[in-house]
Amino acid sequence: MKITPPSRFLDLTFTVGYASKQASIAPKTIEMAFQGSLKELPLPDIIQLVSVSGKTGKFTLSRDHDRGYIYLKNGQMVHATVGELVGEEAIYALAIWNQGDFQFGPGEEPDRQTITKSNTNLLMEAARRLDEWRVLSKKVPSVDYIPELQVRESRHEQITLNPQEWLLVTRIDGHRSIADIGKVLNISSFEVAKILYGMITGELVALKKKSEFVRDEESGELVDLAARIRTIAEEYIGNSAHKTIEKHFLRALDGIMSGDGEQAVDAMVTEFEKTASLLRGLAVTEQLRSRISELRTAV
Question: Is 27 helix (H, G, I), strand (E, B) or coil?
Fold first, then answer.
């Protein structure tokens, strides 16, 4: 595989080439440690640059909260891990990372060997998967996304799924990410993404970010809180203010769904207290405020 790195990496190429030439003269006196961004240089290119020097050491790759490790011995990859994946599959999973950082520490050796294939074969397969991932990523931007089944009342045609798709469907619950499903099924995230690609194209499955899932959960909790506060307000203020209470409750719901969060609930509570003060007096207003405060503290 011929690699032409960006010009800013020519100094790195020179360092590796120099180390390779000098290794036969004084291999123990030359150490090389470097780091960089996976966005600038893909992992297969990095591995090839380092392996030509015949180095022994460990690559540490980081992406958000994920960590992966690749060990080289005399320039050959001998062990790799990322998440639950070990060996070749770990290499292939790490090869599709297009974000994150890498760092090579010379001299570190693994306590076991999980890879027997040559670097050439591994890198060829990694490059193939990387090319395939570029296509998949148009529908599956990240393995951190959460798949959801799409239910359409107007769909009349018969849906036919293959065994892999059926197995995947049984693991889609609206909570697990693509990476999580891979762990449950004991297959790589890459394989899960490949299966999902066709299902997404066929509009059987949609993806959402984890942040959207968290936001949906938080919104649901706030809607429940607002409903319980409304019940308390009706108890203390009385049925005569039902329409006013309902108006502010619905306004709060609209605010919650629009992303205002607790501010929408706070605004509703303020209006309830104003209504209580006008209709029931200061004492009842204080009781209402205390009861709502107890509820929010408990939640």
Answer: helix
* Exposure b/e, 154-172, CB count within 10 A at least 16 = b: eeeeeeeeeeebeebeeeb
**SS3 (DSSP) at 75:** coil
d(CA 156, CA 165): 20
| 114 close to 76: Cβ distance less than 8 angstroms | no
Give the span between the Cα atoms of 221 and 237, in whole angstroms: 24
Q: What are phi and psi of 168, to 5 degrees?
A: -65, -40
Phi, psi for 85 (deg, rounded to 5): -85, 145
37 residue type, one letter: S
22-70 pLDDT per residue, tens:
333 333 333 555 788 888 888 888 888 888 888 899 999 998 778 999 9
* Residue 243, helix vs strand vs coil: helix
Token reading at 251? 């306004």
Q: Say how far apart CA 173 and CA 146 lie, in whole Å.
A: 9
Measured from the Cβ of residue 42, the count of other Cβ atoms closer than 10 Å reads 18
**Amino acid identity, position 202:** G
What does the block give as tokens for 31?
């150490």
| Sequence spans of domains, the chain | 7-136, 146-208, 212-298
Question: What is the structure's pLDDT at 10?
Answer: 36
| CA angle 114–119–125, rounded 5-degree value | 90
pTM of the model: 0.52
Residue in 207, 171, 201 with CA at minimum distance from that of residue 186:
171
